[in-house]
Amino acid sequence: MSKPPPKPVKPGQVKVFRALYTFEPRTPDELYFEEGDIIYITDMSDTNWWKGTSKGRTGLIPSNYVAEQAESIDNPLHEAAKRGNLSWLRECLDNRVGVNGLDKAGSTALYWACHGGHKDIVEMLFAQPNIELNQQNKLGDTALHAAAWKGYADIVQLLLAKGARTDLRNNEKKLAFDMATNAACASLLKKKQGTGIWFQFSLLWWHPD
């Protein structure tokens, strides 16, 4: 049973695939790629030949080859952010993969970068002019919630300096401050909120300055 054809690319969107086999071009206009290469499809207006980019080269690819001989990658930017793969993230951005796209959990790539503690990924995403800092996923968590919960004070500091909101509550009515798992994150968030809350951990007391 053959796979259903990929949905057409919407304006401003990029479809991303991983080649399962090497493709040998027959004309100079066609794109050469090898098994495992990532292919970014930017134009599917011709039903027979799609325009794609791989390893910085752009050319035409038979649409039936992509449909039958390539694996779709639904959220490449998210995957790169989760893995801390800076070169893949840069390649995705260079090929105009949307920086604020949401995965099935409603999370952005920035959320996953903060969740994984990948500071270099966070900094690269911050360099994008339209990056959305405060997107809440299906659980209501923001990137700041993730960084606080995982205890990455350096990333909490980056988010706060960039202007991330501290007043957003998730579905459990918790602020990022409420989810902080260490004193460093709690201190940063408390200073930003300007509250006089005392924060107690099971084995650790933290006092305001």
From TrEMBL:
Highest taxon, organism lineage: Eukaryota
NAD found in the keyword field: no
ANK repeat segments: 139-171
Keywords for the protein's UniProt record, in alphabetical order: ANK repeat, Cytoplasm, Repeat, SH3 domain
Subcellular location: Cytoplasm
Quaternary structure annotation from Swiss-Prot or TrEMBL: Interacts with SRC and SMN1. Interacts with FASLG.
Protein name, per record: Osteoclast-stimulating factor 1
